[in-house]
Amino acid sequence: MDSTPQPPKGAKVRTSSFRRVRGLIALPVAALILSGCTVPSFGAYESDTTTGRSTYHLWQGFTIAAIIVGGLTLGLILWAVFRYRRKSADAIPKQTQYHLPLEWFYTIVPILIVFGLFAATVVVENKVTAEPKADVTIDVNAVQWGWTFQYPGTHALITGQTTQAPMFEMPAGANVHFELTATDVVHGFYLRNFNFSRLAIPGITNQWTFHAINTGEYFGQCTELCGLYHSIMYFRVKVVTMAQYKAWIASFNTPEGARAAEAAALATKQQLDSIIPTHPTTNHGVN
Amino acid sequence: MKLEARILLLLGLFFGVMAAVYWFWSKETAGSIMIFAGMLLGFLPGGYYWWWSRRMPVRPEDRDDGSLEEGAGVIGSFPGSSIFPFLLGMGAFSSVLAMVFGIWLLIPGLGLIMWALTGATAESRRGGQY
Amino acid sequence: MTDVHEHVAVVHEDHGDHHGHEEHHGPSGLLNWLTTTDHKVIGMSYTITAVIMLVVGGAFAELIRIQLMSPNGTLVGYAQYNELFTMHGSVMIYLFAGPFAFGALANYVVPIQIGAPDMAFPRLNALSYWLYLSGSITMLLGFFTAGGAANFGWVGYAPLSNAANSPGYGADLWIGALLLTGFSAIFTGVNLVATIFYLRAPGMTLFRMPIFTWNLLVTGILILLAFPVLTAGLIMLFADRHFGTHIYEVTGGGVPVLWQNIFWFWGHPEVYILALPFFGMVTEIISVFSRKPVFGYKGMVFATLTIAALSLGVWAHHLFTTGTVLLPFFSIMSLLIAVPTGIKMFNWIGTMWRGEIWFSTAMLMAIGFVITFLIGGLTGIYLASPPLDFFAHDTYFVVAHFHSVVMALVFGGLGGLYYWGPKMTGYMLDERLGKTQFWIMFIGVNLFTFPMYVLGLEGMPRRMAVYPHDIQWKTMNDLASIGGFLIGISTLIFVVNIVYSWKRYPAGDNPWDAGTLEWFTTSPPPHHNFYRLPPIRSERPTWDYNHPDQKALAHGHASQEGSH
Question: Distance from A20 to chain C by nearest Cα, in Å?
Answer without folding.
Answer: 11
